[in-house]
């Protein structure tokens, strides 16, 4: 018990999250509406960020945390910009013709 | 004068943020942090916040952190409820849109309320326009805590704001 | 003993977070329309990522990494509901109709 | 009109196909991934790892290698980013403006970005300044800087942010990465006798590298923001 470390658990969680991310990818492909696709991309971004932190700790690479921070920030920006473009009509959804 | 004071306060906050990022500190970090914090603070307080600054002081910030811990008591039971809905094979959802008039007046309070609604399982803030909040709920019962004003009272208490002096 | 309790708390938080991620994925795939999906996703992602990251912050202790992970949690708690709200508002303002049980089927 | 467009499409396709031929040929010439006798594995890597730490002057091996042994390649990359912007801006300028709606930005988004903005700026500069210890450095910091400019233009509207500098100044800012790199090359020539030679004196070397990273970061950020301005139709190329 004493020589067991959660670090081995981290790898399992990484694989689990990646499977989840691929499942979300299906929603990104299937849609059916544009917001659904943007949402799927946003969700995959969050999972990737957590995976980066997990991998950084499991492999003892502290600098991956900064990569995760940048990734999270960019994922946030992408969602906000995409919704704004949708809102102002630059991106067009199929439900308004 | 007010702008300069805001600049100094923001720069101190940014400097602390820098020191957190650069955690194993050495002397050059202190210097670079101060330079960058001063510069970013200058840009924010004289350019970005010229029209309207976010009314966020040290007291409100502490209140926000308290509010996050307070939120956990609200979120966890509701999250389990939603988990039950998702796992149920028949998917018993009855989505509704309700429009709610909030009593909160400040910008900070309203935005906190909107994000609290979004984070609380079962309700999602779709629009915020003046004091009208459009909420999408998975089932009408999820909005009970919002409609009877419990959420708003919690926010006011956490942020340490009494409605009268606003 | 203390190390074992520490490891146990960390494992519990990480596994609970992963479970919430799974519920979020399930919601994204199962719910009938965009608005209900955005429900499932924003909460479960914020809560799941928050729990996993909290576990990791406890695991790495209050040195540089733990503090940086806490900064990441703060960003997440702010960005996740904001992004979800922005997307839902964009859809709502451009006239995407929400699904209701009376309609019987999907309205898109 | 329609026929002309079709001709243009066919021409573009032919051009792309002609380009793709040599590229595919080049890729096929590459050694199999992970094969031990590939040039990258033969001697270069070992040499970098061995000498990088002591002679690179950067704590992060990758940055040291990028800015010293491979400075010419990195210079090329900076030019590629700049050129990519020129190409993308040319295409983005063609976005139509019909059906644009004037909806105010959500107050929630507005407030969050205003509160978060200065912290994102500080983080971007943190990544740039610490480029010699962190991965990415100027490139990564530049992306964050550009993201911040884009977020700000969501809140304030693209026009005021784009109007913070005149069109000519924006052009200079976008070229910063290329210019700073070229200037460093010349300075290196003057100080050490060969292009991109960084002086051995540690303080001077370190400050030169920070200037380089700042140049790449500012250039990258301006390029990204410029792309967004072009898409939202505020600023043409």
Detailed description of the structure:
The complex is a heterotetramer of chains A (97), B (166), C (108) and D (237). With 97 residues, chain A is mostly helical. Chain A has a domain at 32-91. Chain A is 76% helix and 0% strand. The relative contact order of chain A is 0.13. Chain B has a three-stranded antiparallel β-sheet with strand order 1-3-2, covered by helices on one side. Chain D has a domain at 60-95 and 106-231. In chain D, 75% of the residues lie in helices and 0% in strands. Chain D has helices spanning 2-29, 39-56, 61-67, 71-92, 107-129, 138-156, 158-162, 167-174, 176-192, 202-231. In chain D, helix 2 (39-56) packs across helix 3 and helix 4 (71-92) packs parallel to helix 10 (202-231). The interface between A and C is large, with 51 and 53 residues.
Distance between the termini of chain B: 22 Å
Mean pLDDT of chain A: 82
Structural class of chain A: mainly alpha
Name the helicity range of chain A.
over 70%
DSSP helical segment count of chain B: 6
The structure class of chain B reads: mainly alpha
Q: Level of helix content of chain B?
A: 55-70%
Radius of gyration of chain A: 17 Å
Whole-number average pLDDT of chain B?
Answer: 78
Strand content of chain A: under 5%
The largest inter-chain interface, given as chain pair and residues per side, is:
A-C, 51 and 53 residues
Oligomer: heterotetramer
The run of helices and strands of chain A is: HHH
Keywords:
heterotetramer; C: 108 residues; mainly alpha; 3 helices; elongated; disordered C terminus; D: 237 residues
List the topology elements.
The complex is a heterotetramer of chains A (97), B (166), C (108) and D (237).
Chain A: H1 7-30, H2 34-58, H3 64-88
Helix pairs in contact in A: 1-2, 2-3
Chain B: H1 2-21, H2 27-48, H3 58-87, E1 96-101, H4 107-119, E2 123-129, E3 132-137, H5 144-147, H6 150-159
Antiparallel strand pairs in B: 1-3, 2-3
Helix pairs in contact in B: 1-2, 3-6, 4-6
Chain D: H1 2-29, H2 39-56, H3 61-67, H4 71-92, H5 107-129, H6 138-156, H7 158-162, H8 167-174, H9 176-192, H10 202-231
Helix pairs in contact in D: 2-3, 4-9, 4-10, 5-6, 6-10, 9-10
């Amino acid at each position: 018990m004493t020589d067991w470390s959660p670090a081995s658990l981290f790898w399992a969680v990484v694989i689990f999250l990646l499977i989840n991310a691929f499942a979300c990818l299906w929603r990104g492909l299937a849609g059916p509406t544009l917001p659904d696709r943007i949402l799927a991309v946003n969700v995959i971004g969050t999972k990737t960020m957590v995976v980066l932190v997990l991998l950084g700790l499991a492999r003892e690479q502290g600098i991956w945390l900064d990569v995760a921070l940048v990734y999270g920030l960019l994922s946030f920006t992408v969602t906000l910009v995409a919704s704004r473009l949708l809102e102002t009509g630059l991106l067009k959804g199929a439900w308004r013709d | 004068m007010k702008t300069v004071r805001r600049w100094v306060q923001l720069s101190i906050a940014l400097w602390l943020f820098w020191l957190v990022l650069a955690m194993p500190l050495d002397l050059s970090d202190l210097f670079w942090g101060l330079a960058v914090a001063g510069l970013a603070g200058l840009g924010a307080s004289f350019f970005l916040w010229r029209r309207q600054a976010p009314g966020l002081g040290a007291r409100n910030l502490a209140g926000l952190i308290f509010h996050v811990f307070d939120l956990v008591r609200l979120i966890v039971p509701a999250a389990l409820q939603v988990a039950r809905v998702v796992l149920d094979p028949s998917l018993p959802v009855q989505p509704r849109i309700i429009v709610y008039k909030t009593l909160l007046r400040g910008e900070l309070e309203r935005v906190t309320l909107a994000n609290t609604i979004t984070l609380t399982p079962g309700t999602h803030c779709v629009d915020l326009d003046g004091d009208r909040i459009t909420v999408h709920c998975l089932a009408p019962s999820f909005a009970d805590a919002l409609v009877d004003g419990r959420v708003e009272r919690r926010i006011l208490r956490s942020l340490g704001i009494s409605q009268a002096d606003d | 003993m203390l190390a074992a309790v520490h490891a146990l708390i960390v494992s519990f938080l990480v596994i609970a977070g992963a479970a919430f991620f799974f519920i979020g994925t399930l919601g994204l795939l199962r719910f009938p329309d965009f608005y209900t999906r955005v429900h499932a996703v924003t909460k479960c992602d914020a809560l799941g990522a928050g729990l996993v990251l909290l576990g990791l912050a406890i695991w790495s202790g209050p040195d540089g990494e733990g503090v940086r992970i806490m900064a990441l949690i703060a960003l997440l708690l702010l960005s996740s509901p904001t992004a979800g709200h922005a997307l839902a508002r964009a859809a709502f303002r451009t006239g995407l109709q929400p699904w209701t049980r009376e309609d019987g089927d999907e309205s898109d | 009109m329609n026929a002309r467009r079709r001709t243009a499409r066919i021409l573009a396709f032919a051009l792309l196909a002609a380009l793709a031929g040599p590229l595919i040929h080049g890729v096929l010439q590459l050694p199999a991934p992970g094969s031990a006798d590939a040039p990258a594995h033969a001697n270069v890597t070992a040499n970098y790892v061995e000498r990088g730490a002591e002679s690179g002057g950067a704590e992060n091996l990758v940055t040291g290698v990028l800015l010293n042994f491979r400075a010419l390649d990195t210079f090329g990359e900076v030019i590629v980013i700049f050129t990519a912007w020129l190409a993308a801006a040319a295409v983005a300028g063609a976005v139509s403006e019909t059906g644009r709606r004037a909806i105010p930005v959500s107050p929630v988004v507005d407030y969050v970005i205003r509160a978060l903005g200065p912290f994102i700026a500080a983080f971007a500069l943190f990544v740039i300044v610490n480029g010699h210890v962190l991965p990415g450095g100027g490139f990564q910091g530049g992306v964050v800087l550009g993201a911040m400019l884009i977020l700000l233009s969501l809140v304030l509207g693209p026009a005021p942010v784009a109007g913070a500098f005149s069109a000519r100044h924006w052009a200079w800012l976008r070229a910063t990465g290329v210019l700073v790199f070229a200037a460093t090359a010349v300075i290196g020539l003057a100080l050490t006798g060969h292009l991109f030679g960084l002086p051995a004196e540690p303080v001077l070397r370190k400050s030169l590298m920070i200037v380089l990273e700042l140049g790449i970061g500012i250039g990258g950020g301006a390029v990204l923001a410029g792309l967004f301005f072009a898409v939202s139709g505020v600023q043409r190329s």
